[in-house]
Write a structure and sequence with these properties.
mainly alpha; about 90% helix; rod-shaped; transmembrane; LPXTG cell wall anchor domain-containing protein; transmembrane helix; membrane
Length: about 40
């Protein structure tokens, strides 16, 4: 079994990008829900 470092590097990069995007999306959604909650009260 030969370890292909290029493939590992690309996969890790994609995973990191996915995590960052999901975190940013969650933060935006939380801000929107807070705004909606303030409008209701």
């Amino acid at each position: 079994m030969e370890i292909n470092w290029e493939v590992i590097g690309v996969v890790t990069l994609l995973v990191i990008i996915l995590i960052v995007l999901t975190i940013r999306k969650n933060l935006k959604e939380k801000k929107q829900t807070r705004k909606l909650a303030k409008q209701r009260f």
